[in-house]
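Fold this sequence, please.
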Amino acid sequence: MNAWEFEEEQWNSGVRSVCGVDEAGAGPLAGPVYAAAVILPPYAEIEGLDDSKKLTERRREALFPVIQERALAWSVAFVEAEEIDRIDILNARIKAMQLAIDALAVPAELALVDGNRDHGSLCALTTPHRLIVKGDSRSASIAAASILAKVSRDRFLTDVLDREYPQYQFARHKGYGTKLHYEMLDQHGPSPVHRLSFLKKWERRR
């Protein structure tokens, strides 16, 4: 696999500033959805760079500062649970990705975006972009973004939300709908950081 195929296409067409964009945390029952945007130097060598879902937590943590150091620019953004409930998760994902692109210290001429959706009913990507299905395993730039987004979100769940709401044990399940998480919901009910729109089936079972 050529991890730079999509970047090369843009460079060869005269686009110099290409960022990869990905999000993390679309599926959990609690916490924000995160997104990251990364502009890497052409053909930057970052050993072990891959889709964050294919890497161990330890490997993602090790790659996180390397990506930050090597990148020409990087940024992380998020949309809180309350807003996810208000505008829905698709719009929240799109908004988080555009926020990340907008926050880059080096403006991106074009974004390579993981997935197949670039707009919802309320939010849309406004930066010129190309959608790439499974881009986090096909593009070095998107893979880097996937790691920054995933690690940033996991750290927030572990270091912040787990301490604020220890009864839910967020550090163990990161907000995903595990058996343990549902048991904690049964005991304590939803917290202010839960996505109520994701809990409708659970509410009906109560």
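The two ends are 49 Å apart (CA to CA). The CA atoms of residues 3 and 140 lie 5 Å apart.
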